[in-house]
Amino acid sequence: MAERGVAVDHATLNRWVEKYTGAIADKAHRRKGPTCRSWRLDETYIKVKGKWTYLYRAIDKQGQTLDFMLSERRDEAAATALFSKAIAGNGWPDTVVIDKSGSNAAGLFHMNCLLVMNSWCWLIDSLQVKYLNNIIEQDHRFIKKPTRPMKGFKSFRSASAMLAGIEVAHMIHKGQFAKAGKSAFQQFAELAV
Per-residue pLDDT for 17 more than 90? Predict the structure, then answer.
């Protein structure tokens, strides 16, 4: 921007992030490739207005991002909301690996109850095996690394927008939209159009 003679303040960039990141993240979820039917679900802590909030994240067994959601609470409703959002964009999983979190187990139980009520003949298997969840624990690093220097966010809305942008950038880095000969910037430009 400076090369083109346009003076841009950091607050302007922040407003652009808040305004456009949601639309870019939605387009990214529609354009990502197919994923595996074995999922890993976990949450990590993010500080917003001095209080800890929870970033729920779901990836498949190959490390491809399925979905993510920022929640003020760590409870069954938040876990169920992430399951519903991830299932809407990726289909039903066969297996979900979770940690010992009661909220994730309750959310998965709720989804299985919905399957039974709709007369489905199969349920989602739930595994609580610590070492199988290591892949998502390691994937949290790519969220924590850029957010740690920020020392938290001042509003829930800006945190959601910024985290959506970080997740989309990480999805590009993982190659979830990879097209032959396209750079990361070209992939982002296609999402931003």
Answer: no
User: In whole angstroms, what is the distance from residue 122 CA to residue 118 CA?
Assistant: 11
What residues make up the domain containing 92? 10-192
Specify the CATH number for the domain of residue 103.
3.30.420.10
Over the stretch 149-160, which tens digit does the pLDDT of each residue have? Answer: 888 898 999 999
User: What percentage of the chain reaches a pLDDT higher than 90?
Assistant: 45
Does 4 map to a domain? Answer: no
Q: How confident is the model over 84-132, as pLDDT tens digits?
A: 999 999 989 999 999 888 899 999 999 999 888 988 878 999 998 878 8
CB 33 within 8 A of CB 51: no
**Considering its fold, how many domains does the chain have in total?**
1
Tokens (6 digits) for 23: 């639309």
Q: How far apart are CA 158 and CA 10, in angstroms?
A: 14
List C-alpha distances in Å: 56 to 3, 134, 182: 39, 15, 30
Asked whether residue 2 is domain-assigned, the answer is no
